[in-house]
Amino acid sequence: DPLFQKAAEVSKQHPKPDIKFSYGTAGFRALADNLDSVMFRMGLLAVLRSKAKNGQVIGVVVTASHNPVHDNGVKLVDPFGEMLQPSWERHASELANAQDVAEVLRGVVTEHSVDWNVPAKVFIARDTRPSGKQFVQALVEGVEALGGSHQDYGVLATPQLHYMVRCANTAGEYGEATEEGYYHKISKAFLHLRSLSGKTDVPVIKLDGANGVGALKIKEMAQHLNGTLSIWVCNDGSTGKLNEKCGADFVKLHQCAPEGMVITPGDRCVTFDGDADRVLYFYFNKENKFCLLDGDRIATLMVGYLKDKLDKTGVSLERGLGIVQTAYANGSSTSYAESTLGVPVACAKTGVKHVHHKAEEFDIGVYFEANGHGTVLFTKDVVDKMKAIVQDSDASTERHKAAEKFLSMVDLINQTVGDAMSDMLVVETILYEKGWSLDDWGAAYTDLPNRQRKVTIKDRTVIKTTDSERKTTAPEGLQEEIDKLVAGYKSARSFVRPSGTEDVVRVYAEADTREAVDSLAREVSQIVY
Ligand code: 16G
Ligand code: ZN
Questions:
Q1: 284: Cβ–Cβ under 8 A, 6 or more apart, which residues?
Q2: pLDDT band with cut points at 50, 70 and 90 for residue 444
Q3: Based on CB atoms within 10 Å of each CB, which residue in 100, 139, 204, 316 is the most buried?
Q4: Mutation pick for ligand 1 pocket among 89, 352, 369, 375 (CB with most ligand atoms within 8 Å)
Q5: 334 pocket-lining for ligand 1 (C-beta < 6 Å)
Q6: Catalytic residue among 11, 37, 65, 333, which?
């Protein structure tokens, strides 16, 4: 096959290990030693995807997020900066596992009637893992073997690459596709909101950078904030290891502060994950108790703020403002959003691609996973209506001010994907306007005690779920047994689901007390065997 001859030849220099790869919730992830062939092949696939999308830029990120430093991974970014379309995940897996790459490439070209004359362009970035550099080289070889062109951004936070892709494909409408363009857009919106606040005090933040890319990039961002925030970056990679006893995943899972930070009660603490697409807040209260403000909490803060601005402008929307959670959302956050804020709550399956698409059903869709990944999506309709108010109303009116703030929020938020830096600046803006400490924020509602456990079974795929993973349909009888156990506790809820990233079954439980929830989680784990 002349079209794919070069690809097949170069592929021999990237031999495939005897491993079955699968494009999971967040792309491919494995021990770095096993990933060279996958990288080369994703370079090939990105070219086909770009051609299939009329030559729009496709992104490729080399990262394994919160995994240990010896792992790595890769995922593709679609033209609007969103996750790869699920129907192409199958092609990615087939190509990664193929003995004959040319055959799979030919299949994709035929299935999607790819026009070979369309030029392809691929944007590439990587996190700080030592294996990343050589993987970018393998990717570039893949891109070039199919005659595509590429731009290598070097080390970037995952959401920065998503942003670049969107900028490039919207003719600059979303911003400039450079790192400087990213800092400029976000810091400009942040500083504008600061100037509208009428306040001048400078909050101090202690940030856990997970010894990863977020630590480097937040320092760059801070340079653009004109001293309006004081950010102390801990775990900045200068001494500690990536994600080791630090980072948002560690903090969420262990419900404790990361190592490498000296914290006194009342300090405002923030943690990013290893590729800076998750963010969580935490602090120690007066009793020196560790308090976590998770993704659910951030979502409710954002929803409350946006609803206030929406109400003040009186804008009416067809699909309105809504919040999207997953099964992991704390029950207290769900009732707070529904009852206190009066905002509809939708539930979607775990994984960014699921929550993201659900959020598109609203005019203003706020989505967050409890683990700290999330963002807000806005329709053109709501943005246009706010622009019209800013243009037509008197600048001194509440209505005008609310619309102006709303529009700056739209610029501050990275709508392509959850973005730790952007989300943190959104939270900082809202807390600043409200004059809230973390303790004030935490007082909005009280999380139900919750517990997560992992159970290893022979074949986790026997467990099938429905209702956004909140109920099981197989094996038979499992759900009834879970229901029976849950009925024995107060304010209790529990579900099990097969993990999309590890060979385990995850068990989640919540109940009215710590003791009750531990006991419920244990009991449910036992019946999963
Ligand atoms: C991936 C997902 C994350 C999800 C997690 C669940 C993306 C970018 N990341 O890390 O959103 O919470 O998987 O993992 O989609 P699990 O299926 O192992 O519980
Ligand atoms: Zn991540």
A1: 257, 263, 264, 265, 266, 267, 290, 291
A2: very high
A3: 139
A4: 352
A5: no
A6: 65
> Is 504 near ligand 1, meaning CB less than 6 Å away?
no
Q: Give distance in angstroms: CA of 302 to centre of ligand 2.
A: 21
Q: How many CB atoms neighbour CB 274 within 10 A? A: 34
Nearest Cα residue to atom 2 of ligand 1: 351
Q: What is the pLDDT of residues 82-121, one digit of tens each?
A: 999 999 999 999 999 999 999 999 999 999 999 999 999 9
Please tell me the pTM assigned to this model: 0.96
Could you give phi then psi for residue 307, rounded to 5 degrees? -65, -40
b/e burial code for range 501-511 (CB count within 10 A of at least 16 → b): eeeebbbbbbb
Q: Which of 224, 217, 177, 163 is nearest to 416 (CA)?
A: 163
Would you call 437 a catalytic residue per the annotation? no
Chain centroid offset of residue 251 CA: 16
DSSP element (H, E) containing 450: strand 450-455
Closest atom, ligand 1, to C-alpha of 417: 8
Lowest mean per-residue pLDDT among 133-137, 225-229, 392-396: 392-396
Q: How far is the CA of 331 from the centre of ligand 1 (A)?
A: 20
What is the ipTM for the molecules in this complex? 0.96
CA distance 318 to 321: 9
The pLDDT value recorded for residue 503 is: 86
Q: Return the percentage of the chain with pLDDT > 90, whole number.
A: 97
